[in-house]
Design brief:
With 318 residues, the protein is α/β, with parallel strands linked by helices. It is 40% helix and 17% strand. The longest helix is centred in the first third of the chain and has 17 residues.
């Protein structure tokens, strides 16, 4: 049975934090020349990482791998304070490309810790973003990943407690965990504004709408991209088959058997040209293209402060 229609989710792809991080690396390469070191993948997409590598960016996982006196960009996911301290010891010029919405969580951690709170952080164990947050005030933070983790917590009822979350969580799953926390600790406080970022929420809502119109959803994104994986989980929870694909070469013919309408979305770290190649894969086989209406995103973040200062000094020297 030929595919009749492909339907694109909207919004999809790059968020403001990702655009800012990638542009930061490109600006640093232009200002300083190659190599520019990136601590952890600047964003979780192998195509983006490879393109920047070809321009002279070198991705490393530890500050110890960065040479003394080098130029380095710390990734969008955030970094623990110890990494900045190590960089300072090696006289590494650091441009901090942490997403401002992740930085917001870092600030919240310090504010609540200073006020004597114990912080319960909902996140995925081992994810770069969570490691950065946990490194801020480790003695005050406990991480939970599931409702089962909540059941094993042993805080006293009269303890000052607050929960914070990773920015790329499943909205529905985090609600379940938060509900379990509130049931166990009725006095637990929440952040003034939720930590799951606008882009994560908008893309998950778009996939929910898409799931009602199609037989299968393909999410373009890398395996290590938390927000991309959450999109797949969101579609499956809506009762729609879904798969995560790095690019069009990962589409499997058996997935398409007896399917008429295919939905396509992409994670927040995915360049749109990868999505368009998936679209072309189906259009070339006779499918027509549609796009669902969605929330228009107009969020823009300013450049990292370190980069603004360097560019200002560069102009003054001319």
């Amino acid at each position: 049975m030929p595919i009749q229609k492909i339907v694109l989710a909207n919004p999809r792809g790059f968020c403001a934090g990702v655009e800012r991080a990638i542009k930061t690396v490109e600006e640093c390469l232009s200002l300083f020349g190659a190599p520019v070191y990136i601590k952890h993948e600047i964003v979780h997409n192998k195509h983006v990482v490879e393109r920047l590598h070809q321009q002279g960016a070198i991705t490393v996982e530890r500050v110890e791998e960065i040479p003394r006196n080098a130029n380095a960009v710390f990734s969008a996911h955030g970094s623990p304070p110890e990494d900045f301290a190590k960089a300072k010891e090696k006289n590494i010029r650091v441009i901090n490309a942490t997403c401002p919405l992740v930085t917001k969580v870092h600030f919240e951690v310090h504010r609540y810790a200073k006020q004597g709170y114990k912080i319960i952080y909902i996140g995925h164990k081992g994810h770069a973003e969570g490691l950065g947050v946990l490194g801020e005030v480790p003695e005050a933070i406990t991480m939970v990943e599931t409702k089962e983790d909540v059941a094993h917590l042993s805080f006293q009822d009269d303890k000052k407690l607050v929960f914070l979350t990773q920015t790329t969580l499943s909205v529905d799953e985090s609600k379940e965990i938060i509900s379990a926390l509130k049931k166990k600790y009725p006095k637990i406080e929440s952040p003034p504004k939720e930590d799951i970022c606008y882009a994560t929420t908008n893309r998950q809502e778009a996939v929910k709408a898409l799931a009602n119109e199609v037989d299968l959803i393909l999410v373009v994104g890398s395996e290590n991209s938390s927000n991309s994986r959450r999109l797949v989980e969101t579609a499956i929870k809506q009762g729609c088959k879904a798969y995560l694909i790095e690019d069009k070469t990962k589409i499997k013919k058996e997935w398409l058997e007896n399917k008429k309408n295919i939905g396509i979305s992409s994670g927040a770290s995915v360049p749109d040209h990868l999505v368009q190649k998936v679209v072309s894969f189906f259009v070339e086989r006779g499918a027509r293209k549609e796009e669902i209406a969605g929330i228009r995103e107009d969020v823009v973040f300013t450049e990292p402060l370190e980069l603004i200062k360097i560019k200002r000094l560069s102009k003054a020297d001319r």
